[in-house]
Amino acid sequence: MTLTTVERKTGHFRSASPGFRLLLLSILSITLMVMDHHNQHLINVRTTLAVLLHPVEILVSAPFDISHNISESLATRSELTANNRRLNQEALVQNARLQRMAALEAENARLRALLDSTTKVGDNIIIAEIVSVDMNPYRNMILINKGGQDGAYVGQALIDANGIVGQITRDRLYSAEAMLVTDVDHALPIELARNRLRTIAVGTGELNRLSLPFLPSNADVREGDLLISSGLGGTFPSGYPVGVIRQINSTTGQAFLEIDAEPAAALNRIREVLLISPREQGGAADNNKQQIKAGINAITDTKAEETTTEEVTNKNQPAAEAATENATSTSEEAF
Questions:
Q1: CA 276 to CA 65: how far, in whole Å?
Q2: Residue 143: phi, psi to the nearest 5?
Q3: Is residue 145 helix, strand or coil?
Q4: If you write DSSP's letter for every residue of 187-243 in order, what string do you get?
Q5: How far is CA 117 from the centre of its chain?
Q6: How far is CA 89 from the centre of its chain?
Q7: CB 146, CB 162: distance < 8 Å
Q8: Alpha carbon 250 to chain centroid distance?
Q9: Hey, is 283 helix, strand or coil?
Q10: What contacts 45, CB < 8 A, 6 or more positions away?
């Protein structure tokens, strides 16, 4: 059968090689892109295709979205319980930290007060923390976390933000034992800030009471008088608050007053103490040496005056005896 011209052409195009068809499609695509780039002829076509393909996109992503929603809705009871327990524990920890803030603020206030009290002491100080307190009711002893390794030494004075606390009695190298001013074996040279009357404050074994047993019944003492350290003895520097007189009892026939004082330092609430620097101790020792030297000079001057008086008396005695003899002889001649 004879083929027509149309049939021959159609068969010839279908029998074209794949490479030729790819080339034609590529040329067509490039032509369309150039035309769209310059004249924007295919914007409506792209919009229409995006609208038509949107349901297809939803259908493609639907399995993943459905599986994710199902996995969230089918969470087990144990996982929810574990998450709830974990959240409760975290909330408990946060509440505990919030409660600790009040204690930290109080500690910060105490440390600031200690730093303010160092103005008089100077920069060369040691800040120690109280580790433990002696539970013996008859002894007022504490243990601090500073020892000879840190520069502490036996006899070193302890103060806090309010006044004198005590002194170190035993060095443990990395810690030290200290005796409070209220211990029954402790005595502290003091003076009244109002009139400089000197005496000794003795511990009573009670953290809130000191005793002044060596003041005579006619001493100028008043309730509310401030007691400060006198500096005698060289252990405690002078001028630091020791306590305040709270009660004065006078018994008829007794030579001394019964005086109770309240310590200036809060001995039952302190957490940190300051160790007085050796420089401060050296200054106190120098003051004591100067006082001793002044006392020796005063005694020497007194003895010199007594010697001069005796010499003048001895020189005048012969002249007085001669005058007496002359007066006697004159009286005899007159008679």
A1: 74
A2: -120, 125
A3: coil
A4: EEEEEETTT--EEEEEE-S-TT-EE-TT-BTT----TTPEEEE--TTSSS-TT-EEE
A5: 12
A6: 31
A7: no
A8: 43
A9: helix
A10: none
The whole-number pLDDT of residue 144 equals 93
CA distance linking residue 280 with residue 153, whole number of Å: 14
Calculate the CA dihedral of residues 122, 126, 127, 130 and round it to 10 degrees: -140
Question: To which residue do tokens 């109080």 refer?
Answer: 106
AA letter at 66: I
Tokens of 271: 């957490």
Domain ranges of the chain: 17-67, 118-284
pLDDT in tens, 206-244: 999 999 999 998 999 999 999 999 888 888 888 889 999
Closest CA to 225 of 195, 186, 269: 195
Distance from C-alpha of 116 to C-alpha of 266, rounded to nearest angstrom: 16
List the chain residues with pLDDT less than 50: 1-8, 123, 278-285, 288-289, 292, 296, 299, 312-313, 319-320, 323-324, 327-335
Q: Chain centroid to CA 49: how far?
A: 75
Q: d(Cα 37, Cα 323) in Å, to the nearest integer?
A: 153
In CATH terms, is domain 118-284 a member of 2.40.10.340?
yes
pTM reported for the whole predicted model = 0.53
Tokens representing 189 are 């040279």
Contact 210, 263 (CB under 8 A): yes
Question: What's the token pair of residue 322?
Answer: 């001669």
Q: How far apart are CA 256 and CA 212, in angstroms?
A: 9
Spatial CA neighbour of 181 closest among 157, 148, 153, 215: 157
Distance CA 178, CA 153 (A): 11
> In degrees rounded to 5, what are phi and psi of residue 3?
-85, 145
Task: Give the tokens for residue 320.
Answer: 């007085």
DSSP 136: -
